[in-house]
């Protein structure tokens, strides 16, 4: 097979179907950009989980005098010194516990004022209304239920709270958004494949005389199909390159510069450039193989070679 002939046929095909080729490039670029974005979103969620789950605490809030009057869990009165000592001792014996930190009422009041000092409720609170608590750092954040089972309902304990539950709601929302992006990406891929198939068939129909002559002179099926397959591959690869460029530009302007989220949202551990760069070969390979295979199977039936 002469490479010069194949290349010339690719150029002819792309020029004849310029509008449809442009549509293929755009649809492939958008779908693969969403594909790469969904992969990066998964990496971002996993990075955030690893970062924040490592920092979450389980809090055991102790009964105070106000709770004894209003909370059924504190019906036996405020926590005693002996109960506090026993709770701490039991916590330190547990294998799932890494560290135990005690927070007094004065410390809880100070932290509340720092965080919610502008709230109208803050001016009416006094330190004796705040709850003492133990903040427990777990070796495995998934083991919250062990603490809850051991201390929930115990004398002197008002409640056991797990900060991980709050984060689970956030990550559930992020995962939902990620699956929505994947659904749109799948729809775009279907549209791109339909455009590729139609573009290849239109190109083959417009050159049916040439292909008929080639069949008559004994040209092989692959020799006839090669220009059409490579046309689709070139258009797909162009779209894949645009998708890669879009992801790089988005990472640069959204996280590092422009919006500069890495500076404005210091509490979020954003994914690095390595996570983006490792996705680019997959996107380029998909953009090359997907149109080529779609064209190959479409031509087998259409050209009957």
Summarize the structure.
With 305 residues, the chain is an alpha+beta fold.
Topology:
Blueprint: H1 3-16, H2 18-53, E1 58-62, H3 65-70, H4 81-93, E2 97-103, H5 105-116, E3 133-138, H6 144-151, E4 157-162, H7 164-206, H8 208-216, H9 221-256, H10 261-264, H11 273-303
Antiparallel strand pairs: 1-3, 1-4, 2-3
Describe this structure in words.
With 305 residues, the protein is of the alpha+beta class. Helix content is 70%, strand content 8%. The protein is built from 11 helices and 4 strands; from the N terminus they run ααβααβαβαβααααα. The protein has helices at 3-16, 18-53, 65-70, 81-93, 105-116, 144-151, 164-206, 208-216, 221-256, 261-264, 273-303; strands at residues 58-62, 97-103, 133-138, 157-162. The protein has a 4-stranded antiparallel sheet. The longest helix has 43 residues, at 164-206. The chain is elongated. The two termini are 17 Å apart. The mean pLDDT is 79.
What is the β-strand count?
A: 4
> Given the helix and strand composition, which structural class is it?
alpha+beta
Kindly, what is the distance between the CA atoms of the first and last residues, rounded to a whole number of angstroms? 17 Å
- Tell me roughly what share of residues is in helical segments: 55-70%
- Low-pLDDT windows of residues: none
Q: Which range does the strand content fall in?
A: 5-15%
Shape: elongated
Strand order of the largest sheet: 2-3-1-4
Gyration radius over CA: 31 Å
Tally of DSSP helical segments? 11
Order of helices and strands: HHEHHEHEHEHHHHH
Mean pLDDT level: 79
The largest sheet, given as strand count, sense and whether it forms a barrel, is: 4 strands, antiparallel
């Amino acid at each position: 097979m002469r490479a010069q002939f194949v290349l010339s046929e690719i150029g002819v095909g792309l020029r004849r179907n310029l509008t449809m080729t442009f549509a293929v490039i755009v649809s492939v670029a958008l779908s693969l950009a969403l594909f790469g974005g969904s992969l990066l979103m998964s990496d971002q969620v996993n990075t955030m989980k690893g970062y924040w789950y490592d920092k979450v605490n389980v809090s055991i809030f102790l009964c105070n005098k106000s709770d004894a009057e209003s909370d059924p869990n504190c019906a036996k009165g405020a926590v005693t010194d002996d109960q506090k000592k026993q709770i701490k001792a039991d916590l330190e014996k547990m294998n799932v516990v890494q560290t135990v930190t005690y927070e007094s009422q004065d410390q809880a009041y100070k932290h509340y004022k720092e965080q919610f000092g502008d709230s109208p409720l803050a001016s009416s609170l006094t330190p004796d209304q705040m709850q003492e608590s133990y903040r427990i750092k777990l070796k495995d954040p998934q083991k919250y239920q062990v603490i809850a089972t051991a201390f929930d309902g115990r004398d002197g304990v008002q409640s056991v709270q797990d900060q991980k539950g709050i984060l689970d709601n956030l990550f559930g929302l992020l995962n939902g958004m990620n699956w929505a992006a994947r659904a749109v990406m799948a729809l775009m891929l279907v549209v791109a494949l339909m455009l590729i198939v139609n573009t290849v068939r239109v190109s083959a129909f417009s050159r049916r005389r040439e292909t008929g002559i080639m069949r008559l002179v004994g040209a092989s099926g692959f020799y006839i199909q090669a220009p059409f397959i490579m046309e689709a591959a070139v258009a797909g690869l162009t779209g894949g390159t645009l998708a890669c460029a879009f992801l790089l530009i988005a990472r640069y302007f959204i996280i590092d510069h422009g919006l500069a989220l890495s500076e404005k949202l210091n509490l979020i551990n954003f994914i690095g450039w390595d996570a983006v760069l490792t996705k680019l070969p997959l996107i380029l390979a998909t953009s090359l193989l997907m149109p080529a295979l779609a064209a190959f199977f479409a031509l087998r039936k259409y050209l009957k070679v």
